[in-house]
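User: I'm putting together a teaching handout on how multi-component assemblies are represented. Below are the sequence lines for each component of a complex, exactly as they appear in our records. Could you produce the 3D structure of the whole assembly as structure tokens, so the students can see both representations side by side? Please keep the chain order the same as the input.
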Amino acid sequence: MQVAIAGAAEAQMGLALPGMSASDVMAQAARDALRDAGLQPADVDGVFAASTQLPWAGVTLAEELGIAPRHSDSTMLGGASPMAHLAHARAAIAAGLCEVAVIAYGSTQRSLGRSRASVQELDPWEAPYAPPLPVTAYALAASRHMHQFGTTPEQLAWVAVSARQWAQRNPDAWSREELTIADVLAAPRVCDPLGVRDCCLVTDGGGALVVTSAARARDLRGTPVHLLGAAEAQTHRHVSAMADLTRTAAVDSGARAFAEAGLRPADVTSVQVYDAFTITPILFLEDLGFCAKGEGGAFVADGRIAPGGELRVNTSGGGLSYGHPGMNGMPLLVEAVREVREEGKDIVLAHGNGGVLSTQATVLLGSEAAAEGRPRTKVARLREPAGAVMGRRRRALAGGRAAR
Amino acid sequence: MERSPADVYAEHCRRHELAYQLDADGRPVFRPRVGHDAWRISAGHGTIYATAVARPRDGAARSVVLVDLDEGFRMMSTVVGIAPEDVTIGMRVRLAWRDGAGEDDAPPVPVFEPAEKGA
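Assistant: Of course. Below is the structure of the complete assembly, with chains in the same order as your input.
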């Protein structure tokens, strides 16, 4: 069963309107994504949602949309959830459990405060050492990567600086001021070896995707973005139970997603990869096969993933500079859709990570040409002026975001 | 199963014993969990696998580490007796104990100190 994303939207990225709840954000995104697809809430018969703020996320989403879907999935894989939900939606559509799926996410963690929006479970085997989570887990992984492969603080800083340079091209990005390697290195330490500029933003926001069969998507208003491959994997819940802090389950999710799509990393022209901390894109670019294990530091350094570099990575500015609403999988997916629709990228990889490197989910999205196995050789003209609805301010700006 | 894994573990801690489990194939298991009834006591010698320095806004910097015990299991802990910045991966450490916190008679907490002074 070939499925496609028929609509995409973000909502309330940055700071949500006063009084907006996480479910309001989720529902606004879902309604905008449906509008983008040319569909109504009544057309939706499958809902997919997970949020630390909404334990009943799928059920809540359906109520907000005023629908009674026949399929609901609130699988919680942290920041990897929406990528996994894409695979789950495909399976549900193939099994006849639903025809039109909405995957949605919303967070008000900046308005509410992170400690209230994302309550950490008390783990008796880690709690006595009071690790600030999740940052400590990523700091431990960074320490190990530096020890084992010689990865340097400067290489980590390049991840933050590259994200900032992309964000400077995005009028909706939360952080757009100049940022240098020296700034990142001199920033206050949060949890050594990570400083505050190695850590993602804390913003509100959400997004949604409409997913249906590729055949139906072709008849809808929006340009379909095809799901070429998808896979999820998980290895642990707590960092003290992670076998190798330098090797994540992205090795597994990535290999299966690529195998299904019949593609290799060299075929990918844009990568949206989870960047909760500067160490994470390094780990995932290695684990997904864009470079060898241990070479991630050199791979991201010296502007190679910045605008004009060798690989388009986190073209919105990512979680480090665009926005990071609690679990950041959905904004990465919406940006991946935008890359296909508005930037003419044929094959885009989006990779989500959840918990403390616990869960990984990889999806490969593609244009019509990619889905038909005929990658286009030049950037096609946009079919419609409306692409994904990206951010609440962007549409108000004439012409939207400058081409990246 | 007559007692929870947490209860068995805590009782060992009160005797200053770091307890771990063995699985059906005799492999060490930590964190303690249901499904494993064979318990062993660690000799308390280990190597730092990963190290971080947490710097809370409202408190002193503190060490958070993952320690690989010589018996073949890993646990989160903290290194005491040296500055947290001086903890290094590969450093040999030995078990020490910190009084439990809180008013409800919490058991002592296993922590680690450098195996050799000045090492």
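A couple of points students might notice: The beta strands of chain B are 19-22, 28-29, 38-41, 45-54, 62-69, 74-77, 92-98, 109-114. Chain B has a mean pLDDT of 94.
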